[in-house]
Amino acid sequence: PWVAGFYFTANTMIPFAFLLIMGIYLWQSEQEDWASIPFGLLPLTRHEGIALTGAWFVYMLYQRRWKAAGISVLPMIIWNVVYLAVYQTMASSNLTSINPTDKYGSGGWFYYLPYILVGVYPAVLFMSFLGITPISRDRRKQLVLLPYGLYLGVHVVIYRFGLFASGGYGFFLIPLAPAFALSAAIGIERVIAIGRRQARSQNQRVPRYKILVAAIVFAVLLAGLLTRPGPYNGRVVAMQAASEWLEGQGYEPSQIWGIN
Predict the structure, then answer these.
(1) Predicted model pTM
(2) Predicted pLDDT of residue 74
(3) Inter-residue long-range contacts of 10-18, CB under 8 Å, 24+ positions, other chains counted
């Protein structure tokens, strides 16, 4: 449901989420060299990706995977070289401007919590909590979720101290959706395992856990299908009104583009 509300918009969160998923999948498939490509592209999609790329770079150095470490920083190097050749300044120099403006303000340590509770959807959130126990016992599952925890932590710290002109928008956390989906899937596996044991011990003709799992899956699918697109903000509404006025005046060309 979280992704369904914003997937239609031109935003950077969806491609960032796909790159992160791809990197984690290749990493868990023991293809670290290939995983370094999507991890290296994260900062070119969203600036906070530099934290994940940096963590991956350090981890590859710790693992003595020199080639993978080099590949992970190659996209940033190429980007900076090309940018320097065109504009005579480093592209990543904007990352050194820690507090360019204070107009966006700041928030508390739990500022993003309401956005998570609303965005994730109650059924998914509930099953995610049930997945905590098996995750805590499996180091591999913990490693899979670690990049998502780092991503959330970066956003919390940035907006807590009003850094990097972050607007503190809740949809910045959409890349966390796969983490909650994975945790929920692990939670469902736990429910199935417990339900099977109870069904055998109580000799149930129709195992109750199957009904519960089916109801949860149906509720999540229904919520996704019924999710309404995220509302336009004031600037987007103003741009849409301006483009409609230009179109009504016979402005050529017929396609009108607006950048928010």
Answers:
(1) 0.81
(2) 95
(3) 11/171, 11/174, 12/45, 12/46, 13/46, 13/171, 13/172, 13/174, 13/175, 14/174, 15/45, 16/42, 16/45, 16/46, 16/49, 16/175, 17/174, 17/175, 17/177, 17/178
